[in-house]
Amino acid sequence: MTEVVEGALPENAELVEARFCGGPLLTLLVDREDGPVDHEFTSVVTSKVSPLLEEEGYDGLVEVSSPGVDRPLTKPEHFRRFVGHEAKVKVAEPVDGRRNFTGRIENANETSFVLKLLEGGAEVELPFGSIARANLKEDI
């Protein structure tokens, strides 16, 4: 389904995350490089994506939204793009006895990233395959 959505997005737009919320509601978090993710943009995306999803057999509701300030980090390129920003990361299996990490993204490659922890300043390298959930942690 993500391939269908990604193929229908306007140029310079990116599918950050697709998730089912509360029954047959498909929520698409979409970002773009060339402007805001406003009502006009989400309407355009919905009108392009919905018919293609129906052709694939999906007959539920589609909601298109901005990823927001706590933007999910779902791909290695997201971590590379947000080097220097704070993130909250939960891993599936404990690393050094813990599952939750909050820190500044120091660097990222194809297989892992380094997080400088806010508490204590230690650095921890986490493989992308270990991530259960990761989000930017922006203070407003």
TrEMBL record:
Q: What GO cellular component is one of the record's annotations?
A: cytosol
Q: Where in the cell is it found?
A: Cytoplasm
- For the Ribosome maturation factor RimP C-terminal domain, which residue ranges apply? 73-136
Q: Which InterPro entries match?
A: Ribosome_maturation_RimP (IPR003728), RimP_C (IPR028998), RimP_C_sf (IPR036847), RimP_N_sf (IPR035956)
- Output one GO BP term: ribosomal small subunit assembly
Asked if the keyword Cytoplasm belongs to this entry, the reply reads yes
Q: Which UniProt keywords apply?
A: Cytoplasm, Ribosome biogenesis
Q: Does the keyword Cytoplasm apply?
A: yes
Function, as annotated: Required for maturation of 30S ribosomal subunits.
Q: What family is reported?
A: Belongs to the RimP family.
Q: What is this protein called?
A: Ribosome maturation factor RimP
What is the species of this protein?
uncultured Rubrobacteraceae bacterium
